[in-house]
Fold this protein.
Amino acid sequence: MVASGKAITEFGEYALNDRLQLKVENVSGIVKYHLVNNSGETLILSKVRASVYQRWVIVWDGDRLWFSSSDIGGVVWIKEKDGSYSSTEYYKNSVLQKEIPQAIKEFEG
């Protein structure tokens, strides 16, 4: 199980907790990630086209999934009241800027 706040920088499958699994893949040179629940339902499917040839990092903070890439910037996925997740660019939101995990800050440093 991946500890909350720990940086994920390699392709593979990661248990985030007993209910969630993150799959990170290289699909035709693009970093693709998706979060699934224990029923196999996809909760998050990456939308950005981040190159595998650039640096990237993913961090689960216990509630939100953060993604940052040296070529396209960063997004955070936030769980909505209905259980779905929506993404936003965290540097466009001053509240989210204050909540960026340490592993993301160090990556972007």
Q: What stands out?
A: The longest helix spans residues 102-108. The first strand starts at residue 7 and ends at 8. The chain is about 10% helix and 45% strand.
